Amino acid sequence: MTVTPVILPVSSKQRQFDALVRTLSGDLYRYAYWLCRDNALAQDLVQETFLRAWRSIDSLRESDAAKAWLITILRREHARLYERKTPPVSDISEIDVQDESGMTPERAGESGMIRAAMLQLEPKYREPLLMQVLGGFSCDEIARELNLSGAAVMTQLFRARQKLKAVLLGKDEAELYELP
Amino acid sequence: MNCLEFRRQLAVDPKTRDAVFLQHKQECPRCAEAHARAMSFEASLAEAIAVPVPANLADRILFAQATEQRNQARMNRGRNRGRWMQYAAAAMVLIALGVVGYSRWNRPVLADLAIAHLAGEPLAMTSHAAVPDALVQREFGMRASITMPNVPTGVTYLSDCPLGPYHIVHMAMAQDNDPVTVMYVADHHQAERRDFNQTGWFGREIPLGAGTLVLLGKSAQSFDHLETVWRDAVNGPRLTGL
Known about the structure:
- Chain A has two domains: 13-89, Orthogonal Bundle (Rna Polymerase Sigma Factor, Chain: A), CATH 1.10.1740; 107-173, Winged helix-like DNA-binding domain superfamily/Winged helix DNA-binding domain (Arc Repressor Mutant, subunit A), CATH 1.10.10.
- Chain A is 64% helix and 0% strand.
- Chain A has seven helices and no strands.
- The model of chain A is unreliable at 90-103 (pLDDT under 50).
- Chain B is an alpha+beta fold.
- Chain B is built from eight helices and six strands.
- Chain B has helices at residues 3-12, 19-27, 29-49, 57-105, 110-120, 123-126, 133-144, 223-235, and strands at 155-163, 166-173, 180-185, 194-198, 201-208, 211-217.
- In chain B, strand 2 and strand 3 (180-185) form a beta hairpin.
- In chain B, 25% of the residues are buried.
- The A-B interface holds A 17-18, 21-22, 25-26, 29-30, 33-34, 39, 43, 46-47, 50-51, 54, 97-98, 100, 107, 110-112, 114-115, 118, 130, 132-134, 138-139, 154, 157-158, 161-162, 164-165, 179-180 and B 3-4, 7-8, 11-13, 30, 34, 41-42, 44-54, 57-58, 60-62, 64-65, 68-69.
C-alpha cells in the first residue's frame, strides 16, 4: 500500500506572515532589546508584536511599510507593558551584552564600549538613533512615529551621536562641536 | 552648503543622499575626511547595536502563532457548536409554532364538516316531534354556557355531537318547505358571516356569541328568519321602535 504524504495547503496570508517573521524578527528583537534592555522581555515583546500583527495582517498593504508597521506595534506593546506593570530593569552596570562571535578583540572591545555608551543614552536620544540605524527610518518617518517635529528629531539625532562620541573618546560633549 | 552646515547634517544623518550634501563632500577635503570618519563610526555603531538574536526566535514566534490560531479555531468551533444549539432550539420552536399554526390554519372548513355530518345522522331531518325548550336550554347551557330564556320555536331534533375538532349542538327545525339543520359550534368563532352553496346544500355561517351558528338546508329561504330568531335567543331580543 502506498502512503500519500499529507500536504496541507498554506494560505497566502500564512506565507506572508512566515516571510515577515523570518525577515524582520531579528531587527525587531534588536529594537526591542534596546528599548527594554532585557533579553527575555525583548523576546516576549517581539512575539506579542507578531501575534498582534497576525491578527491584523490584512491591513498591511505594502511590503515596504512592514517594518515601520511592526515597530509601531512593538512600541505600543512596550508602552502597554509599562502601563500594566513596571518590568524589572537591570542596572546599567550589571547588564552584560553578549559579544558577537568572530569579532576581533579590538572590534569586540569597541562594540562593547559603544553598547555601554548606548545604554547610558537617555531614551529620548537612544530611540530616534535606533530607529535610524536599525530601522532605516528617515527623519520625517521618525518624527511621525515619535510624534515630534522634524527639527526636534534632527536635534535629538545630532545630540545622540555627539554624546556617544564623547563617551567613547572620553571627551566633553562640547569639545566635539568644534570643527577638526 | 558650508562646512558647519555639512557637519551638522553629518551628525544628524550621515547616510543622507542629499545632492547638496554630497556635492560639498566632493568639494571639501576636510569635510570628506570627516564624512569618512563618520561612516566608520556608523559602521561600528550598527555593528554594536546589532545584538545577537536568540536562536530559533522566528520558529518560536511561528509556533506561538500556530498555537494561537488552533486555539482560536477551537474556540470558534465551540462557539459555533453553541450557536448551532441555539439555532436548533430556535428551529424546534419554529417547527412547533409552525405545526400549531398549520393545524389552526388548516382546520377543516366548517361547511364541509357540517354537510359531511348530516350524512351520518339521517334521522335528524326526518324527526318531527318538538323538542322541549328545557332540553335545548340545557344543551346550550352545558355546551356553550349560554343562558337562553326564549328558545326559538320549531326545534325537532337535538343532539350534542363532535364535528371534526369541534363540539356542536346539533338541531333540526321544521320550516314551511324543508327542515333546516341548525348547528351551534360552541368552540369556534367564525370571523365573518358568510353564505355558501355546495353539493346541493345551501348554508350560512353566522358568528354568534362566542361560537358560530351554521344553517344548512335545501333552500336558503328561511335563513334570514332563523338568523334573527337565533340571534335574539342567544343575544337577547333587539330593542326596536324605541
